[in-house]
């Protein structure tokens, strides 16, 4: 995998402690011995990992690790490729302060840290370690390695699928959420517009 021009890291069982650390999940039951763990630096790295897995005969199983909180084994892979999005955790409020861009490896704690500093809020999970899901436009790496933007107007079927169809439609590497003002001082609240 190292010859695929991935700017991030590629870990294998031979990588020692780095591999073991990257494999760690909240539940030990969901930790399977992956053949490769990719820690991407950018979206192209995710696409390269997907293409690599698909090019094998038979194709390698792909699993995506966000926050590592899922307890099911389908969130890991025995001998396949785990794409560890924990290296893609950038969160930024848009200049118009109406939306927030959240990379696929961000946790709600990352989002709340940024929104609290801005006096804003986003409807979401109440636990700091829960992975972020999608509500607005998103950037998705598809099974063939293409990177596409999806919204209600662009690739609308994919947009609706990723909003509620589990994780079977691609690797979501970026979400955009609508922001709102804080409604209750001193807490992380959610309101419906």
Automatic annotation (TrEMBL):
<protein>
    <recommendedName>
        <fullName>FAD-binding PCMH-type domain-containing protein</fullName>
    </recommendedName>
</protein>
<feature type="domain" description="FAD-binding PCMH-type">
    <location>
        <begin position="29"/>
        <end position="193"/>
    </location>
</feature>
<dbReference type="Pfam" id="PF01565">
    <property type="entry name" value="FAD_binding_4"/>
</dbReference>
<dbReference type="GO" id="GO:0016491">
    <property type="term" value="F:oxidoreductase activity"/>
</dbReference>
<keyword id="KW-0285">Flavoprotein</keyword>
<dbReference type="InterPro" id="IPR016166">
    <property type="entry name" value="FAD-bd_PCMH"/>
</dbReference>
<dbReference type="InterPro" id="IPR036318">
    <property type="entry name" value="FAD-bd_PCMH-like_sf"/>
</dbReference>
<dbReference type="InterPro" id="IPR050416">
    <property type="entry name" value="FAD-linked_Oxidoreductase"/>
</dbReference>
<comment type="similarity">
    <text>Belongs to the oxygen-dependent FAD-linked oxidoreductase family.</text>
</comment>
<dbReference type="InterPro" id="IPR016169">
    <property type="entry name" value="FAD-bd_PCMH_sub2"/>
</dbReference>
<keyword id="KW-0274">FAD</keyword>
<dbReference type="GO" id="GO:0071949">
    <property type="term" value="F:FAD binding"/>
</dbReference>
<keyword id="KW-0560">Oxidoreductase</keyword>
<dbReference type="InterPro" id="IPR006094">
    <property type="entry name" value="Oxid_FAD_bind_N"/>
</dbReference>
């Amino acid at each position: 995998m190292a010859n695929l021009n991935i700017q991030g890291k590629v870990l294998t069982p031979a990588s020692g402690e780095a591999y073991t650390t990257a494999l760690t999940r909240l539940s030990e039951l969901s930790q399977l011995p992956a053949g490769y763990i990719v820690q991407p630096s950018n979206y192209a790295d995710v696409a390269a990992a997907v293409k690599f897995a698909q090019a094998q005969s038979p194709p390698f199983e792909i699993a995506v690790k966000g926050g590592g909180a899922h307890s099911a084994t389908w969130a890991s892979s025995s001998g396949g490729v785990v794409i560890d999005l924990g290296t893609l955790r950038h969160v930024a409020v848009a200049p118009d302060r109406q939306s927030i861009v959240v990379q696929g490896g961000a946790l709600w704690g990352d989002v709340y840290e940024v929104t609290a500093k801005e006096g804003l809020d986003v409807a979401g999970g109440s636990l700091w370690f829960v992975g972020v899901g999608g509500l607005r436009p998103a950037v998705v790496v598809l099974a063939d390695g293409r990177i596409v933007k999806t919204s209600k107007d662009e690739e609308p079927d994919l947009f609706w699928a990723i909003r509620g169809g589990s994780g079977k439609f691609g690797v979501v590497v970026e979400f955009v959420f609508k922001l709102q003002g804080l409604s209750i001082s001193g807490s992380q609240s959610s309101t419906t517009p």
